[in-house]
Amino acid sequence: MEELPHRRFSDELSCWLNAEGEKTLGSIISTFEQKSFAVLFVLLLGPPALPLPTGGATHVLEVIAMLLALQLLVGHEKVWLPRRWCAVTLAGPRKERFLERLLRLIRWLERRSRPRGRIVFGHRASNVAFGVLAMIGTLGAFVAPPFSGLDTLPSLGVVLLSLGVLLEDALIAAVGIVVTAAGITLVVLLGRAAVKGVAEIATTFQM
Question: DSSP character for 35?
Answer without folding.
Answer: G
